[in-house]
TrEMBL record:
The keyword Nucleotide-binding does not apply. Residues 1-20 form the signal peptide. This is Alpha-N-acetylglucosaminidase isoform X2. Keywords: Hydrolase, Signal. Gene3D superfamilies: Chitobiase/beta-hexosaminidase domain 2-like (3.30.379.10), Glycosidases (3.20.20.80), N-acetyl-b-d-glucoasminidase (1.20.120.670). Residues 155-474 form the Alpha-N-acetylglucosaminidase tim-barrel domain. Residues 483-779 form the Alpha-N-acetylglucosaminidase C-terminal domain. The lineage of its organism: Eukaryota, Viridiplantae, Streptophyta, Embryophyta, Tracheophyta. It comes from Ananas comosus.
Length: 782
């Protein structure tokens, strides 16, 4: 199952001048501006970003919040030379509307005047060796350069990013992420951490005990879906230690966001209540929702409870939650998120019910904060006029603004979704990113007011996120091929012709997915088919593949079959061309092997090429079995298993592809041995089985959050494939039906034991990434 956040997300923002709601929106935007931290606080915050990034250059830059009106009515930054500077004095002045613009201006200068590069640590980190020493910084052209935002907002996060990517973060990692947001120009981030502690205090006011909440909150790695009312109790309960530490962390997160001039988006009440509410409020209108992806409807986590919108208790609870957040955090925002039916179905399709629910949610918000703004996933007429903007969440692939007459006049944010389940897969649509926001903003009667990044998981495909971030400041389309040449130079710190040529190929292949298919990273290694192998004459006819044939067509591999039972990994490019790009990467890497950014890209590209090759080998295994060819079956199954081992060795050579890092970060938050076991189970389960299973039925979400991580391949994906292949051999040798149920039982038992395991995994890289990549290229791809 592929889970989507589709496609409407609503928030209040500044509208275009032509909007009939202009006056009310200007009033709101004025309130947001008045809430910002004082100029001196923001300037110090921008200096803090610089100090953590380039401590030796702290005196080389001067930051000033715009008080001279240089931005006019726009939001901007201006980079200027400071004349007559000595070695110890500032050389470059950066002015801007907020500290976000100051940080963005710093990043812009470092990129386009010093050739620096900034990405997440887990995608190679920063390349700042190219930045000249203090006193020698390059001067900008014509004394100053001013860059304006074409639209006011740059939105960031998805409601599930908090579970797939942020769940185990401490303050040090959060501080680095918020710095990254500021450098990329993000000024409207979700801030969902710690809300369970707020709910605990709110529910206590309604006579709900801490013990009553044990079955309500999900475990740490599943909180996003618990918050959305998809499940309850799975992976829990939450300890008081977790609740307290996350609340403390959230306060630091919000403080840093606010001092940088960001507008955080906080959660609000959707109607999701603990089961005990039925006993405490026996006359309340409480409905049990339907099943969400359980195997057998186990009531321990299936089917959450929704308080009816007509019940007076709804507004009471919602108001209390908003008030409690203000009490804990202060007056930091007017914008709140609420998704009552995100991946859930309402108890009725009656429009009156949906409308009344919208009215109740908004009334609860506004009673808690009279200036409240709703961020939601539906256009509801029951929300007051001027209180919403739509987030075109999947505009990089399926833009809604084109089909809805600019959302029927409602302002919207053009967003890139890009990633599902925090999977590791090289993928993107650079042309859509470069042109899409421009086309939307300049189209007739456009109501676009922002751009955004709404990926389910981060720390992958850095080229995609750097380009998307730049679109917050771009008024014209980017010439992608020229931009990539500059990107390559900045990312690796030097110009290498072979690498530049490789990026040209990647641009037209991996980063040119135009088929509109959203499923990615379904490679057989990480999402192994749970199916019959279709042996002719030994299975029920409807389970057979009568014409399974791997053909080469236009230099890409495709699968022709008469049955749809065998899942096919998504392939949208020529594998031959990508292999040639990998060869260029290797040819140009002799002088870059010490570069962390190059090493990450090389390992990732090698992994990508080998995983696609492994898909072909898996199909050869199935074909061998179908043809009763035991020798070929043995040869190809061994090859597939050897590929898993070799890819594991490759991934082990880079710090950013290690299972151990994920597990150790989970355990580091524990205050007791019980918590330690629970958090590790959460971490292991999310990336494997995900949800519940029976003895012979895997979770419906198994492998949804799969990862190409060393340790996971060797100890999880390898035994799975090996066991399945052993059942294939036995079927041929004994001339019996393939025992799918027996294999499932054996595999699920192994998986559940592994999920509950405590074996240690490496947290540091081992081996020479360049040498391993080169050797695997020669072994499999040359």
């Amino acid at each position: 199952m592929r889970v989507f956040r589709l496609p409407l997300l609503v928030l209040l923002l500044l509208l275009p001048v032509s909007s009939p709601w202009k006056s009310s929106m200007e009033e709101l935007f004025g309130k947001i501006a008045s809430r910002r931290a004082p100029a001196s606080v923001q300037e110090e915050a921008a200096k803090g970003v610089l100090e953590r990034l380039l401590p030796a250059h702290l005196s080389s830059f001067r930051f000033e919040i715009d008080s001279k009106g240089i931005c006019g009515e726009s939001i901007c930054f201006r980079i200027s030379n400071i004349d007559n500077s000595s070695r110890d004095a500032a050389e470059i002045l950066i002015e801007g509307t907020t500290a976000v613009e100051l940080s963005s201006g710093l990043h812009w200068y470092l990129k386009y005047w010093t050739g620096a590069h900034i990405s997440w640590d887990k995608t190679g980190g920063v390349q700042i060796a190219s930045v000249p020493s203090p006193g020698s910084l390059p001067r900008v052209d014509a004394q100053s350069v001013k860059v304006e935002r074409p639209v006011p907002w740059n939105y960031y996060q998805n409601v599930v990013t908090s579970s797939y990517s942020f769940v185990w973060w401490d303050w040090k990692r959060w501080e680095k992420e918020i710095d990254w947001m500021a450098l990329q120009g993000v000024n409207l981030p979700l801030a969902f951490t710690g809300q369970e502690a707020i709910w605990q205090k709110v529910f206590q006011g309604f006579n709900v005990s801490s013990e009553d909440l044990y079955g309500f909150f999900g475990g740490p790695a599943f909180l996003a879906w618990s918050r959305m009312g998809n499940l309850h109790g799975w992976g829990g309960p939450l300890s008081q230690n977790w609740l307290d530490q996350q609340l403390k962390l959230q306060k630091r997160i919000l403080s840093h966001m606010v001092e940088l001039g960001m507008t955080p988006v906080l959660p609000s009440f959707s109607g999701n209540v603990p089961a005990v509410f039925r006993k405490l409020f026996s006359t309340a209108n409480i409905t049990r929702l339907g099943d969400w992806n359980t195997v057998d409807g186990d009531p321990r986590w299936c089917c959450t409870y929704l308080l009816g919108p007509s019940d007076p208790l709804f507004v009471e609870v919602g108001k209390a939650f908003i008030k409690q957040q203000i009490k804990e955090y202060g007056d930091v925002t007017d914008i709140y998120n609420c998704d009552t039916f995100n991946e859930n179905s309402p108890p009725t399709n009656d429009p009156t019910y949906i409308s009344s629910l919208g009215a109740a949610v908004y009334e609860a918000m506004s009673k808690g904060n009279r200036d409240a703004v709703w961020l939601m996933q539906a256009l509801l007429h029951s929300v007051p006029i001027g209180k919403m903007i739509v987030l075109d969440l999947f505009a990089d692939v399926k833009p809604i603004w084109k089909k809805s007459s600019q959302f029927y006049g409602v302002p919207y944010v053009w967003c890139m979704l890009h990633n599902f389940g925090d999977n590791i897969e090289m993928y993107g649509i650079l042309d859509a990113i470069s042109s899409g926001p421009i086309a939307a903003r300049t189209s007739y009667n456009s109501t676009m007011v922002g751009v955004g990044m709404c990926m389910e998981g981060i720390e992958q495909n850095p080229v995609v996120y750097e380009l998307m971030s730049e679109m917050a400041f771009r008024k014209q389309e980017v010439q992608v091929e020229e931009w990539l040449k500059n990107y390559s130079y900045r990312r690796y710190g030097s110009s290498v012709l072979a690498i530049e040529e490789a990026w040209k190929i990647l641009y037209h292949t991996i980063y040119n997915c135009t088929d509109g298919i959203a499923d990615h990273n379904k490679d057989y290694i990480v999402e192994f088919p749970d199916i019959y192998p279709f042996l002719e004459g030994s299975q029920p006819p409807q389970r057979r593949i009568k014409d399974l044939l791997l053909v080469k067509k236009n230099h890409r591999f495709s699968l022709k079959e008469t049955s749809n039972d065998l899942p096919q990994p998504h392939l949208w490019y020529s594998t031959k061309e990508v292999i040639s790009a990998l060869k260029l990467f290797l040819d140009g890497g002799n002088d870059l092997s010490e570069s962390l950014t190059y090493r990450y890209d090389l390992v990732d590209l090698t992994r990508q090429a080998l995983s696609k090759f492994a898909n072909q080998v898996y199909l050869d295994v199935i074909t061998s079995y179908q043809r009763n060819d035991a020798k070929s079956l043995d040869l190809n199954s061994r090859k597939f298993l050897e590929l898993i081992k070799d890819i594991d060795t490759l991934l082990a050579s880079d710090d950013n592809f290690l299972l151990g890092t994920w597990l150790e970060s989970a355990k580091s938050l524990a205050a007791s041995q019980n918590e330690r076991r629970q958090y590790e189970w959460n971490a292991r389960t999310q990336v494997t089985m995900w949800y519940d299973n029976t003895r012979t039925n895997q979770s419906k979400l198994h492998d949804y959050a799969n990862k190409f991580w060393s340790g996971l391949l060797k100890d999880y994906y390898l035994p799975r494939a090996s066991t399945y292949f052993s059942y294939l051999f036995r079927s041929l040798q004994e001339n019996k039906y393939f025992q799918l149920e027996e294999w499932r039982e054996e595999w699920i038992s192994y998986s559940n034991k592994w999920q509950a395991g405590d074996g240690l995994y490496a947290v540091s890289a081992v081996g020479d990434a360049f040498g391993i990549s080169k050797s695997l290229f020669e072994k499999y791809l040359s």
